């Protein structure tokens, strides 16, 4: 995984080179091994790349931007089936110079067009400049695992792996208030098309765009992942998903929460990948205990021979890293658990490891949230029912003290209407809202320490298998993620295999950051007044902390930029 930054400038200015370099340097944490860039002859187009070397046998093979006589490209991602793709290209008479998956991707696109990406088993954020036409193309993988944000205005187009890379090119920072308010209604189910910054948007997963010197932005292609009748047993697909993501040239870690998903990954690493050595890391709180650490210890004892490291987390470390994690996430911190995750990835980096496997993505596709968020009634709901549901939730949370009823309805409709389909309504919300939030968090929290997170449950074949199943098959006799549990019978110890869904272990309540600490960070740039917070918290006490965290975010980012 790496960092990418690109710009297509329609208006030239004297400090163009300076702010482009500033934007690229803002991504050095994503690629500490190498930094390089390309500028077109007319200086309108700039492509920059920061490299975290993982997939190639030598550093030189992975350097970007990569240029041919036809194109220049920067790429962030992984092609897990790169060997099969290489064989396909070579059999067609296409010469490849090194072992970089970037070269495979570039040559494949040049030879077969964007449809070549339909054959990719992996994830990507790619930006390609076509020399002959002067057009800039860009795309993300269909699940949105790799991040790519953009800003489009009369000056041109800027693209980057993280919003902070664009923010450093601006004189002022303005937050997107409707985007922030939608989180108070939908939690992590908000529409993720917009970032938390005005005029900076997320590229839509699976969409391919072109941009030219006249300022025309067009969608030219799309790819998605749909249901597919299973052709192999689920256990074999799980084993392949895990083994395909084990790095060839580096050792790896597993973020082990003690829950079903991370335990499946750890178990399959041990039993299905030639007893591959790995480090398992679990958070352990000084101020309290949780069931997850108990189950993580049980799994490690069951597997045997696993280097299990328990990372101690206390109130002091949470407070010390709050501001840092706000800046890393580029969004308000709605849950302190992200500080713990940041500390886990930082610890993994100190071990000299560059890759970590994580269980994110299983819940969204296998019915893990059927009971957890209390949304099971929405699996068969139409859009009118869903609007009424979230409108009632917004009023119950006291949000009518912030917005009128008409404004609440408009906010909810704007979030739901683009995503709601007849038969897969809630599944779309899970994929396009919750999943996008979770994998964005993992990407930024891990890359802040130069660690690439890989998500086996987002393997395309595994996702297609899950989408082919009904919710009744996924939640069987009241048990969520039933197919995964059945598939792991005889491999995963039953104590964990039958354990019900739990959230990632949260900070103990007595170690929580207080509202006084948060209010001191907001300053004069707070979005909510004390009276507004008080009015909302009377109806929904949990929103007091979150609204103070939003104020803190506003204060932190506006001071930093």
From TrEMBL:
The cross-references to SUPFAM superfamilies, in alphabetical order and at most eight, read: Adenine nucleotide alpha hydrolases-like, N-terminal nucleophile aminohydrolases (Ntn hydrolases)
Q: Which Pfam families match?
A: Asn_synthase, GATase_7
Which ranges carry the Glutamine amidotransferase type-2 domain? 2-214
CDD domains in the record:
Asn_synthase_B_C (cd01991), AsnB (cd00712)
Q: Which UniProt keywords apply?
A: ATP-binding, Glutamine amidotransferase, Ligase, Nucleotide-binding
Q: What is its EC number?
A: 6.3.5.4
Pathway named in the protein's UniProt entry: Amino-acid biosynthesis; L-asparagine biosynthesis; L-asparagine from L-aspartate (L-Gln route): step 1/1
Q: Does the keyword Nucleotide-binding apply?
A: yes
Q: Does the keyword rRNA-binding apply?
A: no
Molecular-function GO terms, alphabetical = asparagine synthase (glutamine-hydrolyzing) activity
| Similarity field | Belongs to the asparagine synthetase family.
Question: What is the name of this protein?
Answer: asparagine synthase (glutamine-hydrolyzing)
Q: Which species expresses this protein natively?
A: Metapseudomonas boanensis
